[in-house]
Amino acid sequence: MEKWLIQSIWIAVFGFLKEFRPEDPYITQYLTNPPMNFTNQEVIQEIFPVSTYTCLGLTIVMFLVTDYLRYKPIVILNALSSFTVQIFLIFTRTKTDMKIMEVFYGTMTACEVAYYTYVYSKVDKKYYKTVSSHMKMACLIGRLVSALLAQTLIDNHILTVPHLNHLTLAGATASIFWAFGLPSIKSSLYFHQSPEHTYIRNSTDVNVSKPKTVCQRLWSDFITAFTNRYVLQWSIWWALGTCFYYQCMSYSQSLWQEIYQNGTDLQVTDNGMVEAIYTIISTLGVYLVGIITIPSWWLVGILTLGQGILLLIMAQDTLLSHAYVGYIMFGTFYHIMATAANCEVAKNIPADSYALVFGVNTFMSLLLQTFLTVVVNSPMGLMLDIRTQFYVYGGGCLIIGIIYTVGALYSTYNTMMRHRIFTTSN
């Protein structure tokens, strides 16, 4: 087996372990029932927002720290943070404890930049597309296995929801040991470049008379990427789309809990099965987007409009089955569009810039999500109830969808006119 493939599989196994979190589909149910007994409003307005604020504060420096420390220490920090989250969930009970837990959860999320960029420093750029798919698939498989396992254990009364935290703790412990066994990185994209890589980068710039500093390389890559109008348009959607995706996914369980408490058609204990179905369908959707040719702007415009409509329906629905279907479709639409966005951006920037663009777009998404959380959830803002929140999210997606659909119409019209003029002139 080739060395690059072994390295890719090695880090992908960590991706599986870090996503093996059987309690995730039931986290709101756990927090709002014994032994925790928080109200739904306390969870969505006081506890969950802490992780968003933490992640924003760390992401702005995490990419640089990750590159400077050569990835592995941040991957280990990711695993240690996941372990600490579970310790707090299992052994503590106060609201303050849960807020501290969310700090570690936000740290864990911010550290994911190390996982997604680690492998780029270990393999040749010609393998970037292949190893990127390995990273994504490993995470999806981890989510699928943990969701199916959680649902099976709950349905057969083998474990209760609180016990799932112990299972997740076992996965986090395994990820720590695996992270320590990851191969070390000798060179990185910016701070610790190999002599050959530094020479290649500098020799491609005819204006360079001496080697660039780290700041100069970062600024050069940033300008190259974001002065490209096409890349900028996709990055704007990436930031907005990801913002609404994570906001809706973070609070969907609270909406389900609201629907369930008022009487509905299904049991809220079906969350694990819903998560498993969502993962499978999303994976198929991502696969199909790679083999079916659809104009990308039309894809984004129509699917974002669809997301907005789904959220508006979910906001007023009283049937848990409908909310589950809406969750699956909303998430699948996002993964399809995110895959298209990633491909379009990657095709139009230098390979070495992808990690930087990923970091910048992630930070902008978190900045928008933090603003949305402050306005919609927090005591400093409107403190909207969960259904009204989903009206806001749905309205936001509708606006984005309309803008990109109009853009797709304009682009298609211009293409047709240019073709018509060309045909007439010949």
Automatic annotation (TrEMBL):
The keyword Transmembrane applies. InterPro entries: Folate_carrier, MFS_trans_sf. The keyword Transmembrane applies. GO terms for cellular component: plasma membrane. The chain crosses the membrane at residues 47-65, 71-91, 135-154, 166-185, 276-299, 319-341, 353-378, 390-410. GO terms for molecular function: vitamin transmembrane transporter activity. Keywords: Membrane, Transmembrane, Transmembrane helix. Belongs to the reduced folate carrier (RFC) transporter (TC 2.A.48) family. This is Thiamine transporter 2. It comes from Macrosiphum euphorbiae (potato aphid).
